Amino acid sequence: MNDELLIKYIETTSKCNYSCPICVSRTRNCHLDMEEFYKIIDNNLDVFYKKAIWMDFNGEPLVDPYFFDRVKYMHSKGINTRISTNGALLNEENRIKIAESGISYVVVSIGTLDTTVYKQIRGIDNLSNVLNNLIELKKCIDKMHSKTELQAVMIDTGENLDREKFIKYFHNLGINVAFHNFTNRSQSINMDLNPKIRNFDIYTRGECKGLRSNIIILSNCEVVTCCCDFFAQNSLGNLRDYNYSVKKLMENGKLDNIISNLQNHIYEGACKNCSDWIYYQENATEEYVTVYPVAKKDV
């Protein structure tokens, strides 16, 4: 396993403008304090430098009033940024700011092109608005000659999926596509979308791959190492207790203990009820995310 320490996410906010039935509940519901944000960046530059950091996790990044200030600061320190958004707040002002900001990648969770299914998974009838926002963002990026890439995400809802239609629709717009399998993350989503049945018996569960390269800093400065651990059940500690240094925090041995437990088939906290482990084994036969990039045209 790769022992290099990589921070993948900084959750600048855990607040959201949506309340999706498909999403986990919100327990933190706060913005990352700006002074603490500066300390996190400055005290981990050796880990962050030239890396691509996702500025989201269990929240909508564009509800963060300091979001673009954070992006600017990170770029000034040589750190690349990416975001995933529900797209509802991609208004004209935010579209221009994104195009100007230098954010390298923007993922918009469309979910589906079916308005009925969209309302089912999002709890709001807003698909046409989100689609328009994404299309206008693409136009803005092209007009301003921004290098920001866009991706539209489709979710496996088990409801008569038309993957080819979704891919063709966005590829015709010059937008990349990704397909996400739906799973009930740690049994925390109160919604049954009848995802495809998987034969868990063909997998041998052990240590999850990439535990040291999937570090997530939450908006309350807690640190976790699993993209399914929204509630920090397997918290590695709080950066406030380690002078905001991830390396110092990692010396407490909690991650090593989690890895040892998994190797010995002991599943605690978020691991205990996890249904996503099948994607993170060394010999996994399928991916949680499948990406369909726009074909590069010959120059």
Structural notes for this entry:
With 299 residues, the chain is an alpha/beta fold. Helices cover 27% and strands 15% of the residues. It has helices at residues 34-42, 45-48, 67-76, 92-101, 115-122, 127-143, 163-171, 246-250, 254-263, and strands at 7-10, 52-54, 80-85, 105-111, 149-155, 176-180, 215-217, 222-224, 237-238, 289-292. A 6-stranded mixed beta sheet has the order 2-3-4-5-6-10, covered by helices on one side. A 4-stranded mixed beta sheet has the order 1-7-8-9, with no helix packed on it. Strand 5, helix 7 and strand 6 (176-180) form a beta-alpha-beta unit. Helix 4 crosses helix 6. The N and C termini lie far apart (39 Å).
The total of helices stands at 9
Describe the largest sheet. Answer: 6 strands, mixed
Strand order of the largest sheet: 2-3-4-5-6-10
Helices and strands: which structural class? alpha/beta
Beta strands, count = 10
Low-confidence stretches: none
Radius of gyration: 19 Å
Helix content bin? 25-40%
